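<context>
A single protein, sequence plus fold
<entry> Chain with its tokenised backbone below
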Amino acid sequence: MHGMFYTIKLFLMTFNIVLPSPQLSRQSRQMAEKMSMGALLLEGDNYEFWLALGCLSDNNALNQHALIRALQLNVSLAVAWGYLGKVLSYVISKQ
């Protein structure tokens, strides 16, 4: 079961980070978010799952929380730092 979550998470994370696609539907992103949360239920101390959740979610508060948690587990994640900056600049620009 763990292998399935990890494989799907890697597949979705690859396409969302490396090849951002406007064709990726909101429903697909929500499914990926739910799968990342399911993986976290099984392995809550895995920084890769936190990173995936932070990159896939449409909720800014959840993005921020997940990215910060990933950075707490592994401070050298360049992708997490980049996405966290992106989320924070978006939130500040909305204020």
